[in-house]
Design brief:
Elements (H helix, E strand, L loop, with lengths): L10 E9 L2 H10 L1 H4 L4 E3 L6 E11 L3 H12 L5 E11 L7 E6 L3 H16 L12 E7 L8 H7 L3 E6 L1 E10 L2 E11 L6
Antiparallel strand pairs: 1-3, 1-8, 2-6, 4-5, 4-7, 5-6, 8-9
Helix pairs in contact: 3-4
Length: about 200
């Protein structure tokens, strides 16, 4: 075996997402710039800002195709819908903040998408998700405690609101690298136009 050769990973770290349009990602990054640059915050790269519909986790690469088929079938009858993004917050609390997020209204279209995706991944052999669905766009992660100085004040200063037309859903692969995660689209499916 040649020096430096590494066998390709047999497992993937997967999630299902709504990818945001470039103009929305750029506007969101501008609106949260000060928040994302606080000391101790690791910002999500602008090109990777998205809404996670379902985190799947580690799965054998050989099972990706069957998962994609279930997701295609599960989303085939869903129609396009609009999402409203607004306000900022943290998980789990200001005192123990680990994730900085932008809020997403729970539209009926998003709820239907989440249910369909959940059913599809369970049919593909993934254990059901026990945690409630809390839709959000992660804009940064916080390293260590206590939380950054000025975090609470900067959250209240975020002024951002926009509507996103959701017309497709994507199966994404996440690779954890020293400089942060790299996301690659494995497959995606268009949602039907209303009334079609």
């Amino acid at each position: 075996m040649a020096a430096g050769y590494g066998a390709p990973r047999a497992r993937s770290r997967l999630f299902v997402a709504v990818r945001l349009p470039p103009r929305v990602r750029e506007s969101l990054a501008r609106a949260t710039r000060t928040l994302r640059t606080l000391e101790g915050v690791r910002p999500v790269r602008v090109e990777q800002l998205h809404l996670t519909v379902r985190f799947i986790g580690e799965m054998e690469r050989s099972h990706e195709a069957s998962l994609a088929r279930e997701l295609a079938a599960g989303t085939a009858d869903l129609t396009r819908f609009a999402l409203r993004l607004h306000s900022a917050g943290v998980f789990p609390s200001l005192r123990r903040a680990k994730v900085i997020w932008l809020g997403v209204d729970e539209a009926s279209g998003l709820a239907a998408l989440h249910r369909s995706v959940e059913d599809a991944v369970v049919r593909a052999g993934v254990a059901p998700e026990r945690r409630p669905f809390r839709p959000h766009v992660t804009v940064g992660r916080i390293r260590g405690t206590p939380p950054p100085v000025g975090l609470a004040e900067e959250i209240t200063r975020v002024r951002f609101e926009t509507t996103v037309d959701v017309d497709r859903v994507s199966l994404m692969r996440s690779e954890l690298l020293p400089r942060g995660a790299r996301h690659t689209e494995v497959d995606s499916w268009s949602l039907a136009e209303s009334g079609s």
